[in-house]
Design goal:
Elements lengths: L1 E5 L5 H5 L4 E5 L14 E4 L7 H4 L6 E4 L9 H6 L3 E3 L6 H18 L9 E5 L3 H13 L2 E5 L1 H5 L9 H4 L4 E4 L17 H4 L7 E4 L8 H8 L6 E4 L10 H6 L2 E2 L8 H19 L7 H4 L7 E3 L6 H12 L2 H18 L3 H10 L11 E4 L4 H8 L3 E4 L4
Parallel strand pairs: 1-2, 1-3, 3-4, 4-5, 6-7, 6-8, 8-9, 9-10, 10-11, 12-13, 13-14
Helix pairs in contact: 4-5, 4-13, 13-16, 14-15
Function: Catalyzes the oxidation of erythronate-4-phosphate to 3-hydroxy-2-oxo-4-phosphonooxybutanoate.
Pfam families: 2-Hacid_dh, 2-Hacid_dh_C, DUF3410
Protein name: Erythronate-4-phosphate dehydrogenase
Amino acid sequence: MHIVADENIPLLDAFCGGLGRLTRVDGRTLGPGQLADADVLLVRSVTRVNADLLAGTKVRFVGTATIGTDHVDTHWLARQGIAFFSAPGCNASSVVQYVLSVLSLFMVRQQRSGFDGLTVGVIGAGNVGGALVQRLLDLGASVRVSDPPRQEQGADLPFASLDDVLQCDVVSLNTPLIPEGPHATAHLLDAARLSRLGAGQLLVNSGRGPVIDNRALLARLQAPDAPLVALDVWENEPEPSAELVDECWLATPHIAGYSLEGKSRGTEMIAHALHQWAGAEFHARLASVLPPPPLSELHVTDHATPMDALHRALMACYDPRDDDSRLRGAFARGDAAGVPRGPVFDELRKRYPVRREPSSLTIAMPPDTAVQRTLSHCGFRVVEASGV
């Protein structure tokens, strides 16, 4: 069996090394000629999988190590009898980590001492949004959710109108890109809706770039009383608007789901599906192939407040300002050297440093404290340590 796979899918040798020959490729530039004798194609979101790529090849299995599938023509695959699998929910905890870290920086900026009284609007409550909602409720925030399909299905969530959601202190976009239909999300936040956001609010998009009209957003950010904006996803990736990047409070290169656990969980899921399709036994497990984290333990004293301890723990695992600095610095160097922004953006993703999730970090602290509950709600492993 010949497996052609995006070079940015981690730990694939550990999960699929026994199935056959593995060829790594640049997912952004992958073409039909590289699939001439391939049986299996494994991709990430940068590869458009459709008839233009696969017609005339002998590929019979396609897997995407991502939660989204809008880059794959699933209807064409089905008509051709090509098996398809994705990895729903694989990086949900990674994206939640990203949003919570951005939110923590915002709360420090606003001098908030806790989540009481904070309103957070979540647009899209699937695997990522649903997990985010639960974390926020556990932390004591007031949450409003806009997700018409799930509301129609009777999901038990604090639903509100989109207008109400846009009035929250923080608005987080976690919806897939749906180009058309009754629940279309393309340019869901257009100029009219963006005009309702004002100073003191934070808008975060870690879902899909075109859910926000980026030109309208730029105009809003250049107008008075603009909100703070943190964007991880952009229209026209991998070449986001230079002006929009400059106007954002935080700008990152589509890496919200790029924790090592999140990416590796996606690998594990599609590898398991591939083994089932091939009739082979699947033995590898994520816990056995992940390397030790660079930081494994923190100690918190009984003098720490819940918010202070949470902020420091979140930043110890992941500080979004690092990715913001890398993006702006790389773009500035590329612009000076005449290098197009597309390759620079892709290189940042390709060479992304190891980032671990809260579950990799053990926090030792005195027993019976509100700090314990707060940190546990965010996924940290908390252990009692008397005398700390």
